[in-house]
Amino acid sequence: EFTTNRRCFEEDFKTQVQAKEWLELEEDAQKAYVMGLLDRLEVVSRERRLKVARAVLYLAQGTFGECDSEVDVLHWSRYNCFLLYQMGTFSAFLELLHMEIDNSQACSSALRKPAISIADSTELRVLLSVMYLLVENIRLERETDSCRWRTARETFRTELSFSMHNEEPFALLLFSMVTKFCSGLAPHFPIKKVLLLLWKVVMFTLGGFEHLQVLKIQKRAELGLPPLTEDSIQVVKSMRAASPPSYTLDLGESQLQLLTKQDSLDIYNERDLFKTEEPATEEEEESAGDGERTLDGELDLLEQDPLVPPPPSQASLSAERVAFPKGLPWAPKVRQKDIEHFLEMSRNKFIGFTLGQDTDTLVGLPRPIHESVKTLKQHKYISIADVQIKNEEDLEKCPMSLVSSLVGTLEVSLAQKFKSPKFWLSCICCLWPKYLGPCRPHSKATVCTDSSSPHRSITVLQSMKLGIDVNRHKEIIVKSISALLLLLLKHFRLNHIYQFEYVSQHLVFANCIPLILKFFNQNILSYITAKNSISVLDYPCCTIQDLPELTTESLEAGDNNQFCWRNLFSCINLLRLLNKLTKWKHSRTMMLVVFKSAPILKRALKVKQAMLQLYVLKLLKIQTKYLGRQWRKSNMKTMSAIYQKVRHRMNDDWAYGNDIDARPWDFQAEECTLRANIEAFNSRRYDKPQDSEFSPVDNCLQSVLGQRLDLPEDFHYSYELWLEREVFSQPICWEELLQNH
């Protein structure tokens, strides 16, 4: 369709501008032409409107017909997108998008068809492509951006964040498109483009992970909490994957002997640290063989990712080969609950009674206990969630005295920004079963993608291209859903813990945990090394170079990339989601145990990537106490890796299962209590106040008479008649009035 877009632009451009190219025009002439394009969008004919929209899309794609290199295409794409936005293109395309969403004829036509093809969503795909390019190009900041571009970026962010002209925010419109698609009312919607655009819009309006870290620091300062001692993003960047360095094979015998004698470096001396100790089945060995050989052979390439440091130079190898880590990567943390539990056990043992939540009185306890409490308090960590939960508990106890102070400083919540969270929450929850399961590589379930061919009879080559494109669409859908959900959950958690718990509980009830585990119950090595892309057909390469003749052999060979970072990104996001849903939730941790997640997660550890391994080890750590002594005994290498890479919680007896939290009880009560707290929070924050005997009464005459009442628009026309009928003509018996009151 690149050629079609170019042809539509050139046909329109020749009729408006004589003997010139787009890049030769002055800025004023370019603006005048764009204004003419937007005027020609407002025509009745759908065909003419589509041609003009394609011409705009060609501009947003960088007018590649006049460029000589890929760098030029990307440069002019960015320039044209800022120009298009400043001329009002986004607002014009937003109106067209509303028209296409409300097009009942297209919906009914798609519902009657036995199979949906790419031709059914042509107009929608062109509109969404233009909007995506505008959002993505304007969203990305560069040091060379002019002041005018920076101002345009902030204006665009505000325009996308809030409702304009009595319309809903743009993200809410995209959520409604997802809801209509998932409910089956609009099967022709290009859901891949919708999800991808939705993720970018949320990232642009709310901020990405780095912005979240800045907001977290600001909020901790506002609440009077101590600053963070470490940046988790930077810590993970400095971690290395648990795998043998490629240069250990070149060590001398004396150095190798030195390495093998160090127990602390046992992790570096194993060729495959996480190779399961149990004998693997033949099917597992066959499925993992090819991918594992490829991954081990390309270890250096993998560790050149920004998440891990580059390989050291030859000059520093001799010193670094035998350098031991000075300490654990994470500083230990202690909760207030942990200190209280430790003192409760100590007082019961040495004194025979407890003092509740008092952590300051240490009378009667031996000196080592004093030192232990001092050490625990030094590493005490109070999270924003702890403060918010404490405020809600106080508000529950004293609803009348604290309501004014808390509501007065209450921030504008994300739920209010996105209207009612129940609206889009339903579409998020139905995304999981509809897409995450079918989007697995070897799933037999079908999933509707944007690449279905409208032609029935195709050749073998076309069939291979279509198969690769369908798999690529599935990967992008998983990437968009996982990134969108993770970003929303992190923002909700920062905004208020009960908003986060509200969304999390709905995701758990929508079978999110077993679906993620089902996704990982495959050969993750093969998934991450999948080659479902054709590099010569990717943008902007395909717009500059002459396309070579594609054959079945070239398609089978794939591109030169050894790893698919898109799939690695999706896997890390899903693991982080699973961590957020299960952290400090014993009932959900038991779900991991019941669904036998340990062997599934252990297989994922074969991927030699630090961040992915970290979140897998976190998930294994929280359930080791439930897996039994035999499992821990036969997986000591995994236990060692958990000790080396995961943050330690003092007094957390995760490795032995003696913790009181590991004892069985009614796990359902935990979820019920959480749900009651969430409903109380939602009732206080979002429900309209109901009249009750505790409602304050205004006794001031001036205040009561000064209240504004909602009156009908025509009331002032009949005001005198109303006075005559309702006041002057009604006799008042003052004696009865005094007797009754």
UniProtKB/TrEMBL annotation:
Domain Far11/STRP C-terminal, first and last residues per copy: 366-719
Limits of the Far11/STRP N-terminal domain: 1-264
A GO cellular component entry from the record: cytosol
Segments of this protein annotated with the region Disordered: 272-292
TM ranges: none
One Pfam family cited in the UniProt record for this chain: N1221
Biological processes annotated in GO: cytoskeleton organization
Biased composition (Acidic residues): 279-289
InterPro entries: Far11/STRP, Far11/STRP_C, Far11/STRP_N
Superkingdom of the source species: Eukaryota
Family: Belongs to the STRIP family.
Protein name: Striatin interacting protein 2
Gene name tied to this protein: STRIP2
